[in-house]
Specification:
single chain; 198 residues; mainly alpha; elongated
Length: 198
């Protein structure tokens, strides 16, 4: 079951790479033009939630019956709903924005950590995925305890998160790329050993 999940994920290693590159671009933009990002922060974060939610939803639907596929669907629906709420209520204020980002970061961080732990026997150096989960979870906890953050401080917080997340996602994507081959070799070796013992 988990081997099937790893093989499925390894076929989509490029999606993790693409997410990492987008995150790095967001980090560069956040530090290079924080004022500009502050003005459009609601729309940028909403777009990120919707796109990320669609990725999770498609991954969950395409891997129905493999591992915890329903969690991906749930995460995708949740992220998409948050994005739509933010787009339809852009003037909700920085406090509402902070709580929406915190909810997303907390739920996503927990899922990333649990996913890395579940796949640790199949993917070498799953540390990068664990790091991404810890950083995402940490961002959520930080915002929950500091909800009075101004918009500019929130922009820099998101910029720091995006930089670390981008590096982690890119490193993890290359680890994931070869994981499918290793799973296939392990399954083949197990089948050969089973056949020879008969």
């Amino acid at each position: 079951m988990i081997a099937d999940t790893v093989e499925l994920l390894s076929g989509r290693w490029w999606a993790f790479l693409l997410r990492g590159l987008v995150a790095l671009a967001l980090a560069v933009f956040a530090f290079a033009a924080p004022g500009s990002l502050a003005n459009v922060l609601v729309y940028v974060v909403a777009a990120y939630f919707i796109i990320s939610g669609l990725f999770a939803l498609v991954s969950g639907v395409s891997s129905t019956g493999v591992g915890s596929w329903w969690l991906l669907i749930l995460l995708g629906l949740g992220q998409g709903a948050l994005g739509i709420i933010m787009l339809t209520r852009p003037n909700a204020g920085p406090l509402a924005l902070a709580y929406l980002v915190a909810i997303w970061a907390f739920s996503t961080g927990l899922m990333e950590i649990s996913g890395a732990i579940a796949l640790r026997d199949y993917i070498k150096n799953e540390f990068w995925w664990v790091l991404l989960g810890i950083v995402t979870l940490g961002l959520g906890i930080y915002i929950i305890f500091r909800p009075e953050l101004g918009v500019l401080a929130l922009v820099f917080s998101i910029g720091i998160y995006a930089a670390i997340a981008g590096i982690s996602l890119i490193a993890f994507s290359f680890r994931l790329k070869g994981a499918g081959d290793e799973v296939r070799k392990a399954v083949s070796t197990a089948q050969s050993a089973g056949a020879s013992s008969r």
